[in-house]
Structure formats: structure tokens, C-alpha cells
User: Fold this.
Amino acid sequence: GQQVMQIPQYQHVQEGEDFTTYCNSSTTLSNIQWYKQRPGGHPVFLIQLVKSGEVKKQKRLTFQFGEAKKNSSLHITATQTTDVGTYFCAGPSGTSYGKLTFGQGTILTVHP
Amino acid sequence: DSGVTQTPKHLITATGQRVTLRCSPRSGDLSVYWYQQSLDQGLQFLIQYYNGEERAKGNILERFSAQQFPDLHSELNLSSLELGDSALYFCASSVALLNEQFFGPGTRLTVL
Assistant:
């Protein structure tokens, strides 16, 4: 079945450093979504990318969707302690229309 | 606050028991999703309903069942509970299939 892999699994950074997490799907995706889960919280939707090669920015966050629509990345510039949490990518299953397959997430720790 | 409510917040029960988790989606959302999140398994999709009908199924055990009622709230029934069923169970809702999902605060199930 479809697999969505994320790397790295963990990332520790000093406040002010940049951070990037990568997401790779075993199948071509019609779209990709990113979510953030703070410690003790629930996943919160960040963004959805639909077009091949799409790049979207939200303040210090930059999201990219690969040309082949099989990979994506999230880059955070100059991390802050508020960026702490787990970042998940998720893609719809090609065979099961309503199903969203989540990557295992990247846990980001920011040291002040 | 995502607008999705889940009850109860915490549930402690014994092996072999049966429990029911309840979810009320955001007003206007027709689609409800159930996920299981445990430390070693990440966020696992269980099942999805759209306007009362089951639309997608993930790795949901036969001991687990769900339904969406005419008022669009959903219930997840877990029976013959095992220690390994201890996890955080999230409900999410969306307006339509493949749209962004709004997660509830989750129900933490502990099976002793």
C-alpha cells in the first residue's frame, strides 16, 4: 500500500537556526497536507499543496511540493521556541478516496 | 479550539471491556475521521464517514467499529480491549473529502 515517509525523525536545533523536514510518498499524490502537533495537543492543519512544483510561504515557514508530486518539504527559517512540536505530512490514498496517510512525523526541539 | 469535540477526555478501563468514544464534528462538516495515535505507531487512520456512510477504512481491528449518526456525530466502539489498545484516539472532521481536517482534542484511553 501507499507509504509516506518523513525524515528526519527527530531534529534538535538552537533557537535561530533553520529547520527542514522532508516527506516522500511511494505514490504520486493529488495533494499534500502539513499538520503541526504541539506537545500534549492535537494536530493542527498548516497548509495544503496541490500543484506540481508549488511553493507556499507562511511567515517563516516555506512549503514545497515536488515536480513529480511525490515529495514535499517544510522549511522553517530562524526557529523560535514556539515552533516546538511534531510536523506531519499527509497525502490522500490513491485507492481509498477519503483516506489520508500520515508520515511518522518529525519531532522538532528548539533550545533557547 | 478547532470546533470538534470529543468525549470523554480520558478513559481508564480493564482488559476485555468495551468502551465508546464520541465525536461531534464542526458545524457544517460532513466528513468524520478516526485516528489512533500511539508512541510507536504515529498517527494511524482507522475509518472515515461521509454524511452517514462509511467511505474509507484503514487498519481498523475487527474488535473496533464506528458509525456516523444522522446528526453527523460519530461514535467509535472498542471491544475486547487489550493492553495494546492504550493510545490517544483523535476524531477529525472536514467539509468534504480531501479538504483540510480539523482535529478534536482526543480521548486518551488507558487499558489496565
Remarks:
- Residues 65 and 109 of chain B are 16 Å apart (CA to CA).
- The interface with chain A takes residues 2, 31, 33, 35, 42-45, 48, 50, 55-58, 90, 92, 97-98, 100-106 of chain B (CB under 8 Å).
- The radius of gyration of chain B is 13 Å.
- The mean pLDDT of chain B is 94.
